[in-house]
Design a protein that fits this description.
Oligomer: single chain
Strand content: 5-15%
Radius of gyration: 24 Å
Number of helices: 15
Distance between the termini: 45 Å
């Protein structure tokens, strides 16, 4: 029997249950029954008309068909974990295991695009490259038919800032139920319902306090500390009145006595031409594979007017160290952890405990 879990995700990416459905088969009818039952229950019992704008799932055709039927205006999102898993399995079946790393890089690059136009433009660049490296027409055809032209969206700009890439939170709950409630043992249907009833009672009463504490505060502290490091190391370069660029410190300079400030000033002079090239070509970076590989993921750009950063963390969380560093530097916000950083405290375990 198949257990179908439905739920929503909180801003900190913790999972919240909405419904559990026990079905004989995983097909369109099972998903349709589950979705319709949930929708009618919320309307009848709570007076709430449930019409979600986005839904994330794997590539199960029955599930996607049921979503389109019950919620005609919904945008279907593809779980990156299952997508990568399917692609890697296909490569292994075609004896192309040696090219997994390259294909993974290409898929991750496509995933980081911010619009449908960017997504398709980058695919036009990468398609001949993938075909040239893998020497497999069947694999390229599989990518185009099953991944690129799929009705479910999996690039970053396909939904909203702060969206999770995969349904790990749901899978984590499934694992939690198996380990703590069913003990990874087979149960009869009556026994299973009793166990699930106990699990749900615990979930709505105690789990929020004991098992599902949000990590927002911990992550925010880390972002502020990393932002302060960018300011201290003078890694922020003002390109124009609207844009700031973040320069990476070479590893060979991180642990030397050379003044980081003077080193970064000289480094900025050396790479200023490249910064100009990257910024001027950023909007047209998918015109050729040469321009794309030159500027992709080399510099981070922060727009102080739109308050948007080009890094992936900002797309996933809606906040990042670059965003905070510029806002602190401009005096728009104050770092609440400034005193702690000034005292020389570090993130993580003490030095004498690191193995």
């Amino acid at each position: 029997m198949i257990l179908i879990n439905l739920g929503t995700e909180a801003p900190n990416h913790s999972f919240r249950f909405l419904a559990l459905s026990l079905c004989l088969h995983e097909n369109k009818n099972a998903y349709e029954f589950t979705l319709k039952t949930l929708k009618s229950f919320l309307l009848d019992k709570c007076g709430f008309e449930y019409n979600p704008k986005f839904a994330m799932s794997d590539a199960h055709l029955g599930g996607m068909a049921a979503l389109s039927l019950v919620f005609p205006e919904i945008t279907k999102l593809r779980c990156r974990f299952h997508l990568d898993q399917n692609i890697e399995r296909k490569l292994r079946n075609l004896k192309l295991k040696a090219h997994i790393s390259y294909v993974r890089w290409a898929i991750n690059s496509l995933s980081n695009t911010k619009s449908k136009e960017e997504f398709l433009s980058l695919w036009i660049l990468l398609e001949p490259e993938i075909k040239k490296i893998t020497q497999s027409d069947s694999f390229v055809k599989y990518l185009k038919d099953e991944i690129i032209d799929s009705e479910s969206i999996w690039y970053s700009g396909g939904s909203f800032v702060g969206k999770q890439k995969c349904n790990n939170s749901l899978e984590g709950i499934n694992r939690y139920l198996k380990l703590n409630w069913t003990n990874e043992e087979s149960k009869s249907v009556p026994e299973f319902f009793i166990v699930m009833q106990k699990a749900m009672d615990y979930y709505v009463t105690k789990c929020a306090e004991e098992k599902c504490m949000p990590t927002d505060c911990r992550n925010l502290k880390k972002y502020f500390e990393n932002a302060q490091n960018l300011i201290t190391n003078n890694q922020i370069y003002k390109y124009d009145n609207e844009t700031f660029v973040f320069i990476r410190v070479p590893k060979r300079f991180k642990n030397t006595k050379i003044s980081r400030k003077s080193e970064m000033e000289s480094r900025i002079q050396k790479v200023e031409e490249r910064i100009k090239f990257c910024r001027d070509n950023f909007q047209n970076r998918y015109e050729s594979i040469i321009i794309y590989t030159k500027i992709f993921d080399f510099f981070r750009f922060y727009d102080v007017v739109k308050k948007e950063c080009s890094c992936q963390t900002f797309l996933n969380r809606g906040i990042c160290k670059h965003n905070l560093a510029v806002e602190i530097k401009l005096g728009r916000i104050k770092n609440p952890y400034q005193e702690r950083i000034a005292e020389g405290s570090r993130v993580g375990r003490p030095r004498n405990m690191q193995g």
